[in-house]
Specification:
The complex is a heterodimer of chains A (about 425) and B (about 90). Chain A is built from 10 helices and 18 strands. Chain A is α/β, with parallel strands linked by helices and about 425 residues long. Chain A has 2 domains: about 210 residues, FAD/NAD(P)-binding domain (3-Layer(bba) Sandwich), CATH 3.50.50; about 150 residues, D-Amino Acid Oxidase, Chain A, domain 2. In chain A, the strands form 3 sheets. In chain A, strands 1, 2, 8, 9, 10, 11, 17 and 18 form an 8-stranded mixed beta sheet that branches. In chain A, a hairpin with a 4-residue loop joins strand 14 and strand 15. By secondary structure, chain B is an alpha+beta fold. Chain B has a single domain, classed as Folate-binding fold. Chain B contains 2 helices and 6 strands, in the order E-E-E-H-E-E-E-H. The longest helix of chain B has 10 residues. Classes of the chains: A alpha/beta (about 425), B alpha+beta (about 90). At the A-B interface, helix 7, strand 12 and strand 15 of A face strand 3 and helix 1 of B. Bound molecules: flavin-adenine dinucleotide (FAD). The site of flavin-adenine dinucleotide (FAD) has 40 residues of chain A, from helix 2, strand 12 and strand 16.
Amino acid sequence: MRFSGFKVFKEAVTGHKGWKPLWGNPEPKKSYDIIIVGGGGHGLATAYHLAATYGLENIAVLEKSWLGSGNIGRNTTIIRSNYMLPGNQPFYEFSMKLWESQEQDLNFNSMVSQRSIINLCHTDAQRDAYRRRGNAMHLSGAGGTLLSQDDLREMVPFLNFDNARFPIKGGLMQKRAGTARHDGVAWGYARAADMRGVDLIQNCEVTGFRIEDGKMLGVETSRGYIGAKKVGVAVAGSSSRVMAMAGMRLPIESHVLQAFVSEGLKPTIPGVITFGAGHFYVSQSDKGGLVFGGDIDGYNSYAQRGNLPVVEDVVEGGMALMPMIGRARLLRSWGGIMDMSMDGSPIIDKTHIDGLYLNAGWCYGGFKATPASGYCFAHLLATDTPHETATAYRLDRFARGYVIDEKGVGAQPNLH
Amino acid sequence: MLIPHPLLGLRDAQEFTYYGDAALMNRPDPNAETAEADFCDYVFLRDNPAGVHRELWFHEQGDRSWLVVTRNTVTHEILSAELATDVKSRGAK
Ligand SMILES: Cc1cc2nc3c(=O)[nH]c(=O)nc-3n(C[C@H](O)[C@H](O)[C@H](O)COP(=O)(O)OP(=O)(O)OC[C@H]3O[C@@H](n4cnc5c(N)ncnc54)[C@H](O)[C@@H]3O)c2cc1C
């Protein structure tokens, strides 16, 4: 079933009887060539690229719950490639380019909207740092524009420019950044993978690995043993738990991040605005809700819910930045569990076990990475070599001293 | 979350700064043959369990003591809290 304007028109005049489920619900086979553990954005994108880009067959995605029940459906949907370090820049820019062609590639409306992101600055030193970052972004083609206070007063007049503690002096804008429909991204990849013969197996939790003489044989699951030549783990937030079953300890702590959405309002916020100094960022969804968040709660957690102090902190940040937000009513808040890595950057690598591959450590920024993460993980699984944009994401970079620490805070995951 | 401080009673977790796994109290021996690997492990690798976790909290906006808090990471339930100095002097892990 292809989506098109014509199809929508035809269904409209024939009573919408021709729509079909977007993917099937197959029974697991006895074995597969490649098993992806985790049916979130990264796992589904990996399966899609294995089939579509690398032409492989006999692939399954095993998801312990329903597809998209994890962080892919819980994030605040920001996509951007405004990174600075050489290990990150090419990768996130590659991802940005994949976002730009995603809807055509997948034949699915994932509502990619390049409505821009603005990072606010409050001091001369911060402006200098943004100028440097902006220049680094130009090197990889990500683009970036330094904004003055006057520019901002015109674009986003509702901000509290004269805040006593953090007066707004300017900002760094990436015009190509924006948002995408998070669930739509999961559905789009799931459908595209299913159409290319990938088995998407839900309610199937991986409970162990069968490894012999350092070689992967298959996975134990809540639906029985399934053999596999290669297993790729992409279980965001649960990476330590799952890899512990293969006897591995990771450079990761699991933390909870909360997000919030207000009632639907008329269009007020043009793009994404981040107020790092106040621990607050915001955008407006197409339905009109203000989608916002702030810092992680800051202690190890697998609870998928946070605590009230962070709610207070985030809302205070919002009030400081744009006092008008106080008139909006909060509709919902929720939490998601993320892998906070020791340098704030991800891992896409083989492990010491033959046939076991790891995609982990995405912190609070893995949504924007979904397309490239899937592409690069598929590349690694298919060719046993890292994709050219992901060569820095190795598991042994910590031991070798090649950490990729954008924030420069060291091995303290709750500060990244 | 309320942390049962052994000297001050129940205190709001907000008064504390979180540091991480209490295993960080045991620094490896820098003179050991395996020191390089030991320190890499110490600095970067974590057990990160789902369930009971012993962890270090610093009472920054209180009496500035370090506590070892035993907490369930799945439910956020706090099971106990001890002064880190007591734990250290017991020589326990
Ligand atoms: C509140 C919040 C806001 C965020 N905002 C942004 C943002 O604005 N921009 C951005 O770029 N990123 C953001 N992120 C981060 C982003 O959501 C994640 O980094 C990314 O979604 C992780 O990859 P994923 O989609 O594959 O994860 P998930 O969707 O979590 O997928 C992992 C899957 O693995 C499954 N699984 C776990 N264990 C097993 C097992 N044993 N067997 C089988 N399956 C298993 C889980 O059920 C889950 O479905 C945010 C995260 C949160 C929590």
